[in-house]
Design a protein that fits this description.
CATH architecture of chain B: 3-Layer(aba) Sandwich
Order of helices and strands of chain A: EHEHEHEHHHHEEEHEHHEHHHHEE
Distance between the termini of chain B: 28 Å
Oligomer: heterodimer
CATH class of the domain at 5-115 and 203-219 in chain A: Alpha Beta
Number of helices of chain B: 12
Largest interface: A-B, 67 and 61 residues
Structural class of chain A: alpha/beta
Strand order of the largest sheet of chain A: 3-2-4-7-1-8-11-10-9
Distance between the termini of chain A: 20 Å
Number of strands of chain A: 11
Largest sheet of chain A: 9 strands, mixed
Shape of chain A: globular
Order of helices and strands of chain B: EHEHHEHEHHHHEEEEHEHEHEEHEE
Strand content of chain A: 15-25%
Structural class of chain B: alpha/beta
Largest sheet of chain B: 10 strands, mixed
Helix content of chain A: 25-40%
Number of domains of chain B: 1
Shape of chain B: globular
Strand content of chain B: 15-25%
CATH superfamily of the domain at 5-115 and 203-219 in chain A: Thiolase/Chalcone synthase
Radius of gyration of chain B: 19 Å
């Protein structure tokens, strides 16, 4: 049977362009910080899991091989996950599974991307075959959501402003736009209608790391553990006739499976805050619906009402989210890590008051890969 | 760390032939294997609880090539699955870990690759450290030559030993319908060939192929219901060594030995399938694993008979499981490797019912 697993350490680089660091330097920065947080060194680690988006983003094939020394993996297992944009969360889940299986007591999970060493938009556009890129893929679905839900045009701008304001509280954030405003977002260049430049995520460098541990180890760790209460993954085809790309069934199924495993019956009431993968502004209301937190076509009301602000009734992306930092392969892990830091009361200036149960979420591909987890300050969450 | 593993067995296996160049897309290779597995077991797609696939985007030259591969599995209604950018043997490792949680019972494991669109020697040179070695174009075959030279210099092997490995592997491959190489040169004839990456000759390097392999892994009593003679996974583990050849003793494979020790790799094996991508590696692996003459090594011919990159390691597991299923072996060891000079190694020990 599965045994408990907890996040006992977290580490992050900042997510600004880093021409002065190698890939080794980048991942070691995050890994060492996470290990120090957990009161450990590389010698204590039983196994390492590494995740990132396509190898082509930096042009390094199977980078676990060249990063093995830097991550202290020599003589140990190092495992490599790749599930498109959801990879960071999928990697966290693989790490949790390794602890829950009873096989390993201390697992180091590291994810990264260094977009300054490659051309992510080229890669995301299908490489030599050419293509529309991520924004070009998602924009028509966003337009479709606006038409279906009747949401006013400024919802996307509001998300963009809220997440960039949150980012000003987060020292790791890539974008720090002090004079961010609705007008500034609205007046920024149109990239993929209806998405303006400031409604899109940046191209970031960075690494994130967490230390996952068994219950025995977690109870002896110096900080407060974030218990992994449940996790789920689902995948569907990227296109087929009749597919609802605005509300992909895989995301809905994944959410339902996640809440069932966690024993959550009222996600909006029982979860205190969420870190949701929002690379383009409108994905906040879309995923609020996809995550079953609000009825269909009503997600935008939560944004409009200020519910998703850091002081709102359901804070979303208090860290500033993907809109403020997007080292692609790490972004899903950052969502899971920030959720853990909230329940560990380690979120600093963007700490959500009273956060005891938090959701980490990521998606990838043509909105077809989903990976999520629920973490809590309590091994037996109070809502049960 | 606990050693109370849940009993999990391989109940059905499938592989495509190793093709020099398969004309269709990679998902077709996968779909053939998946359909074959379902036909053998009578299971339907919805009976599969979890799927784990291993492949390499770079082989197809497309950054998200693995996304297309899901077409060969089926993902509607949505499925629970994941992907490793590693040989399918590592997908097996993660799927085995997942089944240990006890809530699901049936896992599909896949390894696949189509190397024919590209040049593997150029692609895998990009495995090197991106600042120091990759810009030199140092590729796995050249590094394998350095490793083979280290064996010669240490008097642990001769070039004739390399040729003997190839001769024996090709002889075995002649009986393997999935093998690509159909040659029967003697060791003496092989030694007359010119060098390719000295002291290795072209035939010492496993011929790259397109192909896929897949298996179904099932927990507990359900395994016995689905299969007359399941191949029980006694243990599976992997280890990595330093990336820098200068930091390593290239004549040894301590990561192989350590992984084998972790999974109870002692005792005798009726059969061992080793991922010998270069002939000299068999000599290193045999020593590291302490394999004696009572163990039949690479009865399939091994990768030297055909190397469907990203499936090759999983094929080793499949070849051992097949021999346990048909009763010709009781206990076997499968080995998979990644990186230059055997940098990373996985060991899986399989056992039949008594």
């Amino acid at each position: 049977m599965a045994r408990p697993c907890a996040v006992i350490g977290t580490g992050q680089t900042d997510y600004r362009k880093k021409l002065d660091l190698t890939l080794d330097g980048l991942v070691r920065w995050a890994a060492i910080e996470a290990l120090e947080d957990a009161g450990m060194t590389f010698a204590d680690v039983d196994a390492i899991v590494i995740g990132k988006a396509p190898d082509a983003l930096e042009g390094v094939v199977m980078p676990e091989l060249s990063l093995a020394d830097g991550l202290g993996a020599v003589g140990k297992p190092i495992h490599r996950v790749h599930t498109a944009g959801s990879v960071g969360a999928a990697t966290a889940i693989t790490g949790a599974t390794m602890v829950e299986s009873g096989r390993y007591d201390r697992v180091l999970v590291v994810c990264y991307e260094k977009q300054s060493e490659g051309n992510a938009t080229w890669a995301l556009s299908g490489g030599k075959s050419g293509g529309q890129g991520a924004g070009g893929t998602f924009a028509p679905w966003i337009r479709s959501y606006i038409e279906r839900s009747g949401a006013p045009e400024d919802i996307g701008w509001k998300v963009a402003v809220k997440d960039r304001q949150n980012a000003l509280r987060n020292p790791h954030a890539h974008l720090r736009i002090k004079d961010i405003s609705i007008e500034k977002v609205r007046d920024s260049p149109m990239l993929w209608d209806p998405l303006h430049f400031l409604e899109s995520c940046p191209s970031s460098d960075g690494a994130a790391a967490i230390v996952l541990a068994s219950e025995d180890v977690a109870r002896k760790s110096p900080g407060k553990p974030a218990w992994v209460i449940a996790h789920a993954k689902r995948t569907e085809f990227g296109q087929f006739p009749g597919r609802d790309a605005v509300r992909p069934q895989a995301g809905v199924d994944c959410s339902a499976a996640l809440y069932k495993e966690a024993g959550i019956t009222d996600p909006r009431g029982q979860i205190d805050c969420a870190e949701i993968y929002v690379p383009f502004s409108w994905y906040e209301p879309m995923w609020l619906e996809g995550l079953l937190l609000t009825p269909i076509n009503e997600g935008w009301h939560m944004t409009d009402n200020g519910d998703t602000e850091i002081t709102g009734s359901f804070p979303v992306n208090a860290s500033g989210g993907v809109l403020s930092s997007n080292p692609i392969g790490a972004s899903g892990l950052i969502r899971c890590l920030e959720a853990a830091n909230q329940v560990r009361e380690r979120a600093g200036d963007y700490q959500v008051d009273g956060a005891r149960v938090a959701l980490g979420h990521a998606y990838g591909g043509a909105a077809q890969y989903f990976a999520m987890w629920i973490v809590s300050s309590d091994l037996q969450p109070a809502y049960r | 760390m606990t050693d109370h593993s849940r009993d999990v067995a391989i109940v059905a296996v499938s592989q495509t032939p190793a093709y020099e160049a398969f004309a269709g897309p990679e998902p077709v290779l996968i779909m053939r294997c998946v359909n074959d597995l379902l036909a053998r077991t009578g299971l339907e797609r919805h009976d599969i609880d979890f799927t784990l696939a291993g492949s390499c985007d770079y082989l197809s030259g497309a950054p998200f090539a693995f996304v297309m591969n899901i077409d060969g599995v089926g993902a509607w209604p949505p499925v629970y699955e994941s992907h490793v950018e590693m040989d399918g043997a590592w997908a097996l490792f993660e799927a085995w870990i997942r089944l240990q949680l006890g809530d699901i019972d049936v896992a599909l494991v896949i390894g696949s690759g189509r190397s024919s669109p590209g040049n593997n020697r150029e692609i895998f040179a990009l495995q090197g450290d991106p600042y120091l070695t990759a810009p030199l174009g140092l590729d796995p075959a050249s590094l394998a030559g350095i490793q083979a030279r280290a064996l010669l210099d240490a008097d642990l092997a001769t070039e004739a030993d390399f040729a003997a490995v190839v001769e024996r592997s090709w002889k075995a491959a002649a009986d393997n319908p999935n093998a690509m190489v159909r040659r029967s040169d003697s060791a003496d004839q092989l030694l007359d060939q010119p060098y390719y990456a000295a002291p290795l000759r072209a035939h010492d390097v496993a011929p790259v192929a397109d192909g896929a392999a897949a298996l179904l892994m099932v927990a507990g009593d359900r395994a016995r219901e689905l299969c007359e003679r399941p191949a029980w996974i006694q243990g599976i583990e992997h280890r990595i060594e330093s990336h820098h050849p200068g930091f390593r003793d290239l004549t040894d494979s301590p990561s192989t030995r350590s992984a084998a020790e972790k999974v109870g790799g002692g005792g005798t094996f009726d059969v061992a399938e080793l991922m010998v991508a270069h002939s000299h590696e068999e000599i290193i692996l045999r020593r590291a694993l302490g394999l004696g003459d009572d163990t039949v090594v690479n009865p399939s011919g091994g990768p030297l008979g055909g190397h469907p990159v990203m499936a090759t390691g999983l094929v080793r597991v499949i070849e051992v499981a097949s021999r346990i299923a048909d009763g010709s072996a009781q206990r076997g060891l499968a080995h998979a490797s990644s990186g230059a000079c055997l940098q990373q190694n996985l060991i899986c020990v399989l056992q039949g019912d008594d």
